[in-house]
What does this fold into?
Amino acid sequence: MASFAAREEPMSAIEIVATLLGLTNVTLIVRRNIWNFPFGLAMVALYAKIFYDHKLYSDALLQIFFFAIQLYGWWYWLKGRADNGLIRVELLDQAWRLAALAAIAIGSALLGWVMASHSDAAVPYWDATTTVMSVVATLLMCRRKIENWVLWIAVDVLAIGIYSYKELYLTAGLYAVFLGLATWGLVSWKKAYRDGTGAPAATRVPEGQ
It folds into this structure.
């Protein structure tokens, strides 16, 4: 069985900065604050280099996607703000939920096979799974869908294991914090949807019901 153990090395300044940017970014997303996007753009630029240097190629490619989709998300969130300045949130219908799950299953298998067959990726299928799930979760986040937090919880659990295995301990710790933030985000967004402060006008529950 081949060993993919990473070379042990001290945590770099770039990883520390990316970690702090990531914490700020996700905290602002949870709070439905549109100013999360500048922090997110800076974070993914740094992580693209970190993951490439550690041969986590799926994750490195993912950061390029993240950069582009966050620009789209910034624009989309500008259109979806409520009277209090925070963004409105929505739920996916059942058909789109099933489509998202199918896309994750098929995309993970295909990308994992490509990375296993044509690269020296360390953990190709696990890396591919978190990559594809992160793509779908980011799309849902940019579209202000509550279900994005369910996917992020799953991604965070897998990522903690992968980054610990690669001895990216600060990043693994970051994802442990992300797991807590994703759980907070799911609870917070669902509450905002139920009480009407973050729901589209057509779906708000009238007072007294």
